[in-house]
Design brief:
Blueprint: H1 9-18, H2 32-40, H3 50-60, H4 91-100, H5 105-132, E1 139-146, H6 155-163, E2 170-181, E3 184-194, H7 200-211
Antiparallel strand pairs: 1-3, 2-3
Length: 213
């Protein structure tokens, strides 16, 4: 069983005759049997061997998918017509020779190198964009109520004392006086703080201390 020497005209003729009524070496879809025979052929068969040439070009189109084709690759002598003597020698030797002339190998290696290069370029671009992107700063808008000690408290002076409080990450906003009863008004003032730098406890403590002065 086998095709003989597929690098010789006689072997290619056997392959051509074998494929006269077949699309593939085994079955009805491309398989590892086709890969094994393809790798044993040194190049495209001549044009007069039309069946072998048709099969060769078709299997060559599966270069990038060869590893995923179904089946298990066997020794070359396990394929082909039963009445042809296997002249390929041991499977191990043939496998080594096939590896030396692997028509798919170089393309796979080039594809792998190209994919690796593209991956590294995209990773570098991502890291560059990430480094340029400003860090997100968490901020909060706070509305503070500042009550006077009594109805004689100077509210303008009280607001001035509150706004005198300065800190990194603190920005004072609008304010207004809100009646609380008996002619007394409280100061309602808004501010924006960076959460990591300024806390409400710190503000309330400092406002209470300053308003007593």
């Amino acid at each position: 069983m086998g095709f003989g020497d597929l690098k010789s005209p006689a072997g290619l003729q056997v392959l051509n005759d074998y494929l006269a009524d077949k699309s593939y070496i085994e079955g009805y879809v491309p398989s590892q049997a086709d890969v094994a025979v393809f790798e044993a052929v040194s190049g495209p068969p001549p044009a007069d061997l039309c069946h072998a040439l048709r099969w060769y070009n078709h299997i060559k189109s599966y270069e990038k998918e060869k590893a995923s084709l179904p089946g298990v690759k066997k020794a070359l002598g396990k394929y082909g017509p039963a009445d042809v003597e296997d002249t390929t020698g041991s499977g191990a030797t043939d496998s080594k020779d096939d590896d030396d002339i692997d028509l798919f190998g170089s393309d796979d290696e080039e594809e792998s190198e190209e994919a690796k290069r593209l991956r590294e370029e995209r990773l570098a671009q991502y890291e560059s964009k990430k480094a340029k992107k400003p860090a997100l700063v968490a901020k909060s808008s706070i509305l503070l109520d500042v009550k006077p000690w009594d109805d004689e408290t100077d509210m303008a002076k009280l607001e001035e004392c509150v706004r005198s409080i300065q800190a990194d990450g603190l920005v004072w906003g609008s304010s207004k006086l809100v009646p609380v009863g008996y002619g007394i008004k409280k100061l309602q003032i808004q501010c924006v703080v960076e959460d990591d730098k300024v806390g409400t406890d710190m503000l309330e403590e400092q406002i209470g201390r300053d308003s007593q002065q």
